[in-house]
Each structure stands twice: as C-alpha cells, then as structure tokens.
Design goal:
The chain has 141 residues and is mainly beta. Helices cover 5% and strands 38% of the residues. The protein has one helix spanning 30-36; strands at 3-7, 14-18, 24-27, 40-46, 50-53, 57-62, 68-73, 80-85, 91-95, 109-111, 127-128. The mean pLDDT is 90.
C-alpha cells in the first residue's frame, strides 16, 4: 500500500492518504473548468483512507452527471481538494495538483471531453470519454 500527502496553497489544511491510487482522469466537465479555469487532474481513493488536518469548507451541487457532489476546499486560500459524489459512495476524488508529489499520479483518461473548450490541450494518447466514465468499483485498502 502506498502513502500520499498534500496541502492547500496556504498550508492551513494538510492531508495524508494510505491507500493505492485508483483511476486517475483529466476532467473537462463545466464544474471542473469553473473551479480550475481548465480541466482538473483527479485520482480516486477510498474515502476512509484519507486523514485531514484542518477543517475544509464545503459546497454541495448537482453535477452534470445528475449526482450530488460535495466539494471540499480551503476556506482561507480557496484551494480545492476533494469531491464526494452520491454516484460513488465510499470513494473520494482528490485533485492531483494538491499532492506534495503530483507526478506520482499519471492520468489514464480524459473525461467529459465534449465539454472541453476548443483551446484545450487534450492528450490524444489517453483514452477519452465524451461524458462521464463508468463508475469505478470501490478499492480495497
């Protein structure tokens, strides 16, 4: 089992994950574009493997997929960390850019490509989905 750690821009919130990484994807949905001004690189982990120091703020919204998504972020600097979806209970999406070693994760797929802006740099060597991918199976920790 691997270990990952990460933090927000200001350092107010830190996290540690003790689990192997699940699927990693670059998401081009409109919500991810709004929180990052680009696509976001995300990796899925078992929710119970994530230990957070600090208290993230949260925002709940119905996503393009129709699922209720709870996004967590640093209330001080605005860094976005995690998303939990009603469509994948027990799994949490972690924004790879907040990892202390983001290169430890390599995306395998672009998702919601149909929503990407015309200027998006989409890696053609990765699998692509015009909309959402099939939900992953819960990972064992």
């Amino acid at each position: 089992m691997k270990s990952y750690s990460g933090a927000c821009l200001c350092g107010e919130i830190r996290y540690e994950i003790k689990a192997d990484a699940g699927p990693s994807r670059i998401c081009w949905c409109k919500d991810c574009q709004r929180i990052s001004s680009n696509g976001t690189v995300n990796v899925i982990f078992p929710s119970d493997a994530i230990r957070i120091t600090g208290t993230p703020g949260k925002h709940e919204k119905t996503a393009d997929s129709g699922n209720t998504v709870t996004r967590r972020f640093c209330s001080k600097c605005g860094s976005h960390f995690f998303s939990d979806s009603s469509g994948r209970p027990g799994l949490t999406v972690v924004r790879a850019g907040t990892l202390d070693a983001p290169s430890a994760i390599k995306p395998a797929m672009n998702i919601w490509v149909a929503s990407a802006p015309t200027w998006a740099c989409i890696d053609q060597s990765l699998d692509q989905s015009k909309g959402p991918p099939l939900p992953p199976s819960p990972a064992k920790t």
